[in-house]
């Protein structure tokens, strides 16, 4: 509502007086709407290749998989979480 009035030509001063907000608040609202949405870059570790590796070596640690994929063990842990694979739980 406020941003619509701002777009239609109302001044910041009139909007500040009418709605009892600071001009900074209105500017932040306007800026947050205008921000660009950035797309994430694609994952370096292919999900299908990771699943094949898990099936071939089910008991390997993340650092062992990381050596095969030439990445960090944290990247492997994140990729495993992304595909829904967790550590074995004790009964």
Automatic annotation (TrEMBL):
<dbReference type="Pfam" id="PF01710">
    <property type="entry name" value="HTH_Tnp_IS630"/>
</dbReference>
<feature type="domain" description="Transposase Synechocystis PCC 6803">
    <location>
        <begin position="3"/>
        <end position="90"/>
    </location>
</feature>
<protein>
    <submittedName>
        <fullName>Transposase</fullName>
    </submittedName>
</protein>
<dbReference type="InterPro" id="IPR002622">
    <property type="entry name" value="Transposase_14"/>
</dbReference>
